[in-house]
Amino acid sequence: MDKLDEIYKMQQNLNKYIGRDTVSSNIKQNWLFDYSEALEAEIRELKNCCLWKWWVKEFKDNQEDQFNKIIDFDNAKIEAIDCLHFLISIFQILDMSPNDIFEIYKKKYIVNIQRQDNNYSIANKTEKDNQSIFEKKE
Question: Torsion angle of alpha carbons 85, 90, 94, 97, nearest 10°?
Answer without folding.
Answer: -20
